[in-house]
Amino acid sequence: MSDGIPRVLIEAPAGFRLEDGTGILETDEKAALTVDEEGLSINYGLGSALFFPLRDISSIEAADYSIVLDLSPGEKLVLYHLGYRYDDFCRVLKKACSELSINDYLMKESMIKEDVRSSYINYNAAGERIEEGNCRIRLYETAAVIIRENGAVTRLIYSFINGIRQEDYRLDIEMETGEKWRFEKLGREFSPLLKSLSDALSALSLNTQQHLRQLLPDVSLSVIRKAAELLKDGRAAQRADLENIHPSLWIELEKRLEIAGIKDEYDYLVPLSDEKRVCIGFKRGLMGDLTGEYIWFLIPVYSRDESLPGNVVAMEASGDGGGKATYFFRIMDRDKYRQASDREELAAKAGEFMLQLNRCMLEINFRREPVYLADEKLSQPAYSKYKESIKQMPDLKILREHFLGRVFHRSPEQWKEDVTDIMRFNVNTDNNKAKWKESFNGE
Known about the structure:
By secondary structure, this protein is α+β, with helices and mostly antiparallel strands.
């Protein structure tokens, strides 16, 4: 984009038909199509024109020399008579949509390897084949991005990769969830891609080890390596797990909270929680555009006594100017929370949710705005990019569904009162969609 003017990507003559559930809205056999970085324009008739933002295109299907675009809300655009421009137009339009998706996917970090063409098979945790096709693989600093032929995008976060295997020029990537991706037909790019991926994973591990070495200069390298596996690339680790490796690890991380200016909040919340399940994580050079340290904590609060505030995970983070608010998320459905048989069941559910919350925050690179914005705000032009992100990112949907509200730091007394209020609210309402102080949720 130059001087605020979107760059034209392709132009072509074509016919079009715009329709909805009631019938044809507009049509012309001889129109002029233009795709730029923001949308598809159609000029037709005598001075008539239509514009469709790329973010409003929910799917693209190409067959029999026609291109069918599903639009929101509820409209369909059919393009035809593209002639020899058909293949190029289809390719450019899909790529434009996928590039915008990656941008909307909250990716603000450096690319380390450009697109590599491949075929793929995606397996679920049970080993069942759920999807296959052709794609492009692109590597960034903290994640691999899989771009399918239809423009859909999936992000594989390095810190949640459980293993990488190669065999007969086939590359398998297994995620911590049990999901697996198999890539074939990589051609000459097989070895360069494998090396770039290996280098990216190694770089993240070394980054964590080096930072831990600075924190704990007197601790053995074997301890540093074990701790780095738990804390790699922004992952938050449980107190009990870190103390099992070395008793000093947790103490040093708590000191970092004090330096970051969020230790008072931590000290207030920890006595209310299951202390051994409290998590702390850190990340350096967050999102490629922030230097210094980003540190955060997750504190679970729950109880078998239904009258006590709870069923929440409190999250506080610093690194972009200091902590400004504490974020609260509901652990589980409120009726299931009340029906939990014992504290062990609550502890297990809290542990599962915190792991999920950790992964979700890494998925959105710790951005908080798309989490707390109220639904009505998403219709405003300034936030429209998040609308598409929410549609495409299951993890962002999870965060928004479980988000209760945020408590601002206006004064220590006000903060403590609001923290008590939000946790009481959470156990005193039956509606899982209810948010605390909904009106200031959209500030």
